[in-house]
Write a structure and sequence with these properties.
GO molecular function: DNA binding
Largest sheet: 5 strands, antiparallel
Distance between the termini: 45 Å
Radius of gyration: 24 Å
Number of strands: 8
CATH topology of one domain: Arc Repressor Mutant, subunit A
CATH class of one domain: Mainly Alpha
Keywords: DNA-binding
GO biological process, one term: phosphorelay signal transduction system
Strand order of the largest sheet: 4-3-2-1-8
Organism: Sphingomonas kaistensis
Protein name: DNA-binding winged helix-turn-helix (WHTH) protein/tetratricopeptide (TPR) repeat protein
Helix content: 55-70%
CATH superfamily of one domain: Winged helix-like DNA-binding domain superfamily/Winged helix DNA-binding domain
């Protein structure tokens, strides 16, 4: 929502800026007041100017130069002035806002405001909002649909007495949307606090169950969430509220679906039928559809059900793949650029961009991306070297380069599951089908001379495939060499996917392409 033109905001201009909700706090620029669970304060004009500019960006990064231009008219006043104003906003989030919003520093770029923003639906003298309690049912949470789901589960949007755990649940949602390991740890800590402090809150227990399940489903850190812990929290939530969407989704997500795809799809469909707007369930269901070779259906469903303005690192990188699967390369590039601008160094967005570049033959740009240490996530040096060698070989098509790169790729498959996942993509790129099927036989069937990693040693990117062997990478556009090989259908029969297609009465994308 573009509430203000992109120009200097003076102190006088603040009088024309409408009041808005930020997290659990109400911000009234006209009076320079912020009111929330932690009290009410009047802030300095410059702090309010910076806060308005950051809020208007709706989760996007605002550069330091833009802040100087919008709040100081481009007059150089020194970094200390900006740092003090940003510090004032941070103090508001931690104090008055009770942690429901915060300012993230994006190194060498600027700042991003994390917290749900609502620009309309109430007046500046709305006592109901001033209490930061009931009445949010009229408001749409811009850029925070995941947090909105948490607030709805807590009863805030239904006009009910608000769940006291709602602020902690919302803070956890903000942390999870960062897509970082630190965000995951913070989210779990906040939700465990919420469940311990408010043991009668179904929303707190449900949110905890769902966070545990989703962190385990797409782990990026060494947080382990045993299924028993997910079920424990889900059971507590459902005992308090049998219709709790988060708890139902957690139980559907936590069960591994490798080899049991039809039952998994039915579980997700059951949750969606009961809770058609539950975004985490739609997200996990979309990932499942990709795992069974229905990439285009997965993409269409995602764009139909997932709001595109959700500021979430993981949702963003999955949208990159979806555009790619639908042949929308320009849109995929735009989504990837947005992801890396908002979340520099985020592995999911970085790899999504890399595979789209490689899959569309832009190897020179893929190599530039690998070489750019500023944007690159923290990858082990052998991984960086292997990615570079494979991209160079794919670009030159030199037989010696290809053979050397193939050996280098295969040397990494015994080190970590991440090495296996990358190898399937890279070996397709190199058209090294013999090595590719030897790896697939080892990874999926535990047969043959190759030893594919089933666990991840310290220092390697974590993919929790000990229970969820990934199949999605075999159905990307880049995997056409594997799909067109006579050995592919027998492999699909051996791992049970051919049986899934028969029982569902559907034809996977690769067969539709071939026929």
């Amino acid at each position: 929502m573009d509430m203000l033109p992109s120009k200097l905001i003076t102190t006088a201009d603040l009088a024309d800026v409408p009041a808005f909700m930020l997290g659990t706090a109400k911000v009234v620029p006209a009076t320079r007041t912020v009111t929330g669970p932690g009290g009410s304060v009047q802030v300095e004009p410059r702090v309010m100017q910076v806060l308005v500019v950051l809020a208007r960006a709706e989760g996007a990064v605002v550069t330091r130069e833009e802040l100087f231009g919008r709040c100081w008219g481009g007059v150089y006043v020194g970094d200390d002035s900006l740092n003090r104003a940003v510090g004032g906003v941070r103090k508001l989030g931690a104090g008055v806002g009770a942690g429901s919003f915060c300012v993230e520093t994006v190194p060498r770029t600027g700042y991003r405001l994390e917290g749900a923003v609502v620009w309309s639906g109430f007046d500046s003298d709305d006592d109901e909002v001033e209490a930061a309690t009931p009445g949010l049912s009229r408001r749409w949470l811009i850029g925070g649909a995941v947090a909105a789901a948490g607030l709805a589960a807590a009863g805030v949007w239904r006009g009910e007495a608000p769940d006291p755990a709602a602020p902690l649940i919302e803070q956890a949602g903000v942390a999870l949307r960062s897509g970082s390991a630190e965000g995951q740890r913070r989210a779990l800590s906040l939700l465990e606090q919420a469940a311990a402090r408010y043991p009668d809150s179904a929303a707190a227990w449900g949110a905890l169950a769902l966070a545990r399940a989703r962190i385990d489903e797409h782990a990026i850190t060494r947080i382990t969430q045993p299924a028993a812990k997910v079920d424990e929290a889900a059971t507590r939530a459902l005992r308090l509220d049998p219709g709790n969407a988060d708890a139902q989704a957690a139980r559907a997500i936590v069960i591994p679906y490798y080899g049991d795809w039809l039952a998994a799809e039915q579980r997700f469909d059951g949750v969606v039928a009961a809770h058609p707007r539950h975004l985490p369930t739609h997200d996990s269901r979309g990932f499942l559809l990709g795992a069974v070779g229905r990439m285009k259906q997965s993409a269409r469903d995602r764009f139909r059900t997932m709001p595109m303005d959700v500021v979430d690192a993981d949702y963003n990188f999955r949208s990159v793949y979806c555009h790619w699967f639908l042949g929308q390369i320009a849109q995929a590039d735009q989504a990837a650029a947005r992801g890396l601008a908002l979340w520099p160094g985020h592995a999911g967005n970085w790899f999504a961009k890399l595979w789209v570049l490689a899959g569309t033959g832009r190897f020179d740009r893929a190599l530039d991306q690998i070489a750019d240490e500023r944007q690159r996530p923290k990858l082990p040096p052998p991984t960086v070297a292997t990615l570079g060698a494979a991209m160079r070989a794919a670009m030159t098509k030199d037989e010696a380069d290809t053979a050397a790169a193939t050996r280098q790729v295969m040397a990494g498959v015994s080190r970590s599951v991440a090495g296996v996942i990358n190898a399937v993509m890279l070996l397709n790129l190199l058209r090294a089908n013999d090595a590719l099927f030897a790896l697939a036989e080892a990874y999926y069937l535990e047969r043959g001379p190759v030893r594919a990693a089933m666990t991840t040693p310290p220092g390697e990117p974590l993919i929790p495939d000990q229970r969820r062997r990934k199949t999605n990478m075999m159905f990307t556009p880049l995997a056409a060499p594997m799909q067109d090989d006579d050995r592919f259908l027998p492999l699909m029969q051996a791992i049970g996917l051919a049986d899934y297609w028969r029982r569902r009465g559907i034809r996977p994308d690769f067969l539709a392409r071939r026929q």
